[in-house]
């Protein structure tokens, strides 16, 4: 049995549609390879073995191209990074005592929130300004600004 060009077109569209239900973003490349192979079969007759080999090579090349070229180079996430917070100045809403956390309010959201729990080595009274000097877990370490 030799597959016709339209078989590959149907398989290609089916794989691309399956990508909607399985969002791994791999089936779309397999489907695109099948579509390209269907168009190639319109121009050149190929045996079934050559068709399968061509589809495998095209699929592999498209997936590798996606992983190497088009995928974002930055695989790190911003969760837990404190570069954005260090040095920022905010207003203490509650008193901060050693071994007791307070709360600091910023004018603009900082790392996703405008209010943060904060700690300090010295007593800081509410209503005063404080500068972020570090991030300790889910709290910001602050000093008087």
UniProtKB/TrEMBL annotation:
Lineage, uppermost ranks: Bacteria, Pseudomonadati, Pseudomonadota, Betaproteobacteria, Rhodocyclales
Listed Gene3D superfamilies: Nucleic acid-binding proteins
Protein's UniProt keywords contain Ligase: no
SUPFAM superfamilies: NfeD domain-like (SSF141322)
InterPro entries membership: Membrane_assoc_protease, NA-bd_OB-fold
UniProt keyword terms in alphabetical order: Membrane, Transmembrane, Transmembrane helix
Record-annotated membrane-spanning stretches: 27-46, 52-70
Domain of life: Bacteria
Record bears the keyword Heme: no
Identification of the protein by name: NfeD family protein
């Amino acid at each position: 049995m030799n597959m016709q060009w339209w078989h590959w077109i149907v398989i290609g569209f089916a794989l691309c549609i399956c990508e909607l239900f399985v969002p791994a973003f791999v089936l779309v490349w397999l489907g695109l390879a099948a579509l390209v192979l269907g168009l190639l079969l319109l121009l050149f007759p190929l045996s079934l073995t050559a068709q399968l080999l061509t589809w495998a090579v095209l699929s592999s090349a498209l997936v590798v191209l996606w992983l190497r070229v088009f995928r974002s180079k930055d695989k790190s996430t911003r969760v837990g990074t404190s570069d954005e917070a260090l040095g920022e100045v905010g207003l203490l809403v509650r008193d901060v005592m050693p071994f007791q956390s307070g709360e600091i309010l910023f004018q603009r959201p900082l790392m996703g929130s405008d209010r943060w729990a904060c700690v300090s080595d010295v007593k800081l009274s509410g209503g005063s300004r404080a500068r972020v000097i570090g991030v300790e877990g889910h709290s910001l370490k602050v000093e008087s600004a």
